UniProtKB/TrEMBL annotation:
The lineage of its organism: Bacteria, Bacillati, Bacillota, Bacilli, Lactobacillales. It comes from Candidatus Jeotgalibaca merdavium. SUPFAM superfamilies: Zn-dependent exopeptidases. PANTHER family: AUTOLYSIN PH-RELATED, N-ACETYLMURAMOYL-L-ALANINE AMIDASE. Pfam families: Amidase_3, SH3_5. This is N-acetylmuramoyl-L-alanine amidase. CDD domains: MurNAc-LAA. GO terms for biological process: cell wall organization; peptidoglycan catabolic process.
Length: 295
């Protein structure tokens, strides 16, 4: 029930949920990303209050960021509007103290600078609950102050350019340009995409219900943020093994279809198998863009 900061005829909660998050989500989904809004489509929950509740009752699994961690999301972006005197203007990006800003953080900071200007640089904080919890449990997290709700200059700028602003933020998260179109009610058209390989072999199914088949090839990552790899199996619920950085190449021997993604796997020099998603499988069965090149 917390409305957040108030100013210029609106409140932070309403403005963010009505104008920002859904637009950013729509743009990212155009590029094949899986995006969830905290609290579902109605955004009816408060991640800060839920995280605090989990801390207070000693349940670090089922509430707030703890629950988000269990779902296997690769990044978390929390949007806010700042508040101060009417002359304060500009936004900035907040990350957990002691961590280095990544390409998503710098990209979002550049988007803020482009559209409303910045009041300060990317800032590490150790006095914010979600920052501290995210750092402790290993979530790639940032809090984005889009501008000042108490500044008529900032709010007028955001309102007039809200779609362009959200697209710039989505491009920062995506790591590249996003196809044009309005983000508010945009519907991604179904398109024909290449298969992971040129093979027309049918899928096999193992004892766990995971679809798989043999495929020997090389994959080179081309997304700026890299791709997280997993141990044990092809699923986001499994332990993180590491990450393949942009420009790095691996030789793989098998592909899998599971957990809404196409995965590749290979045996490491240490003697265990690593699994990595390389593209999304959409709800209609079509494939999202490949996150690299196959040769």
């Amino acid at each position: 029930n917390d409305p957040g900061a108030v100013g210029n005829g609106t409140n932070e909660r309403y403005f963010i949920r009505s104008n920002i998050t859904k637009r950013v989500k729509s743009y990212l989904e155009k590029e094949g990303h899986t995006v969830a809004l905290y609290g579902g489509s109605k955004q009816s929950q408060d991640m800060y209050q839920d995280t605090a509740y989990g801390d207070n009752i000693g349940n670090r699994k089922d509430y707030g960021l703890y629950w988000v961690k269990s779902q296997g999301y690769e990044i978390v972006v929390e949007f806010h509007l700042d508040a101060a005197g009417s002359s304060a203007s500009g936004g900035h990006t907040i990350i957990p103290s002691g961590l280095k800003a990544d390409s998503i953080d710098t990209g979002i900071q550049n988007a803020i600078k482009k559209h409303v200007g910045t009041i300060r640089g990317i800032t590490g904080r150790n006095n914010l609950l979600n920052c501290n919890v995210a750092k402790r449990i290993g979530i790639n997290y940032r809090l984005v102050e889009l501008g000042f709700i108490t500044s008529s200059k900032d709010m007028n700028t955001i309102r007039k350019n809200v779609d362009a602003y959200c697209k710039s933020i989505a491009e920062a998260i995506h790591g590249g340009a996003i196809k044009s179109g309005n983000g508010k009610n945009a519907v991604a058209k179904k398109k024909v995409t290449k298969k992971t390989s040129t093979s027309n072999e049918k899928w096999n199914k193992n004892q766990y219900g995971i679809l798989w088949r043999k495929e020997v090839a090389s994959f080179t990552c081309n997304v700026p943020q890299g791709i997280i790899t997993r141990r044990i199996g092809p699923g986001r619920q499994y332990p993180i093994a590491g990450a393949l950085k942009k420009g790095q190449t691996v030789n793989y021997t098998e592909i899998q279809k599971n957990d809404g993604y196409i995965w590749i796997s290979w045996l490491t020099n240490a003697g265990y198998t690593v699994y990595m998603p390389v593209r999304q499988v959409k709800s209609d069965g079509s494939l999202g863009p490949l996150w690299g090149t196959i040769s």
